[in-house]
Design brief:
By secondary structure, the protein is of the alpha+beta class. The chain contains 7 helices and 12 strands. The protein has a domain of 159 residues: Glutaredoxin, CATH 3.40.30.
Length: 271
């Protein structure tokens, strides 16, 4: 086995004969199969988590008027809600959440045929959501929780006092965070009697599984290519904001969206 310098970015990588390559690939395949089985087991344990009954009557502002949490199910028994970082008065939605949302549209028809609805919720008023959604061209249902406690109850919106003290409850721990809104995903089940149960929520890197682009990049020689970035998702742009000559500043820190107000002293939005 020899080494080959391929470029200034991917250097001195091992190069093997076809026989050696197959041997190495089969060794890795064993680990990939182990990982798949571990992932299946983890998914099974996730389904076995206890549920909590949703006692509050949440009413959201939707594109066609008021909608209750029950109505967001759209006739299905399962509801997947993505908590999108977009607060009142923000200039636009979070670039990283937008990166995730770019992957949602193609899943909608398939989820609907597996008894699952998908919707997105943010605290921004509906008029601001509607304008940004039209700009981005997304087809999913997006509602506003501006008039209710939903974001606070599911730990994705933080008060000015919490931000000032750099102590917010996020991802099941007290931590610092870079913006007054956080990303997350919550899952709900509605039984035949109309009772709603909260079955699961995940935050931070628990959202990685939603990002198809990352799954593609994980297969490539460079991978996600984020190791040398101070803020791992500093390279991400809204899909209509990539320009010719696009470059990434490796030293760029996370910057809270314009209009988001007080920033916490530590913590980084990392989906």
């Amino acid at each position: 086995m020899t080494t080959l310098t391929t470029s200034t970015e991917v250097q001195e990588h091992a190069v093997a004969s076809p026989k050696e390559w197959i041997e190495s690939r089969k060794e890795l395949l064993k680990k990939e199969k182990e990982f798949s089985k571990l992932r299946d087991e983890l998914s099974r344990q996730r389904r076995e988590l206890p549920w909590e009954k949703v006692e509050k009557e949440y009413v959201f502002d939707g594109p066609n008027g008021k909608q209750t949490l029950a109505q967001l199910f759209n006739g299905k028994s399962q509801l997947i809600l993505y908590h999108f970082m977009f607060g009142p008065g923000w200039e636009q939605g979070c670039p990283s959440c937008s990166y995730l949302a770019d992957h949602f549209g193609g899943a909608l028809v398939h989820l609907a045929h597996r008894d699952a609805a998908l919707a997105v919720v943010s605290r921004a008023p509906m008029a601001e959501i509607d304008a940004f959604q039209k700009r981005m061209g997304w087809p999913f249902l997006w509602v506003s929780s501006f008039a209710n406690d939903f974001n606070r109850d599911y730990h994705v919106s933080f008060t000015k006092e919490e931000m000032t003290k750099c102590k917010v409850y996020y991802n099941y721990d007290v931590t610092g965070f870079g913006a007054e809104e956080g990303p997350g995903l919550s899952v709900f089940y509605k039984n035949a009697a109309g009772e709603i149960f909260h079955t699961y929520s995940t935050y931070g890197r628990g959202l990685d599984t939603l990002i198809g682009t990352y799954n593609f990049l994980d297969l490539t020689p460079k991978g996600r290519d984020e190791e040398n970035l101070v803020h791992s998702m500093a390279w991400v742009r809204h899909h209509d904001r990539y320009e010719d000559g696009y470059k990434v500043d490796a030293k760029a820190q996370y910057v809270a969206p314009k209009g988001s107000g007080t920033s916490c002293c530590s913590g980084e939005h990392k989906s």
